[in-house]
Amino acid sequence: MKMIVGLGNIGKKYENTRHNVGFSVVEELANRYNVDFNKEKCEALIATAFISNEKVLLVKPTTFMNDSGRAVGPLLDYFKIEVEDLIIIHDDMDLQLGRIRLRQKGSAGGHNGIKSVIAHVHTQAFKRVKVGIDHPQQMSVVNWVLSRFSVTEQALMKDAVTQACDAVEYWLAGNTFMNTMNRFN
Known about the structure:
This protein is α/β, with parallel strands linked by helices.
């Protein structure tokens, strides 16, 4: 079984914000496979899909971004999923808007959601799909990540969400993560 976790903040107030692109990706995957987030477990909403004959948990933590690990760690334990079978999808201010970058491991890089996941899974060695949201030019980081995309930016982000989903599907089809990185980075 694989677990794909999109990071974000729960609630209408945060829908379609820059910080919620992780949610957007797992929601698009759920749409592609016609499944709903109809289970709650370990402070997360879960949809179960079969992708390339692989059982996949699509996860949206309900803990808010900065405590995402509080859901991820217990879910891995509960479902007996190895960290090698985990992908975290999240926003990245250091990437150009609409770009994606896959990583096999690494530090939190200042991202509090990733910092929380590292603390709760006890390793930095988990796969990530980062979605670029640009760095703020004339507003605070907090206001930036909680802001919504302009009409022009929405088209770029739609493409980024599509690419992120395609990358996850490519990996789930049996390709190594290194090959997936080479294809999508």
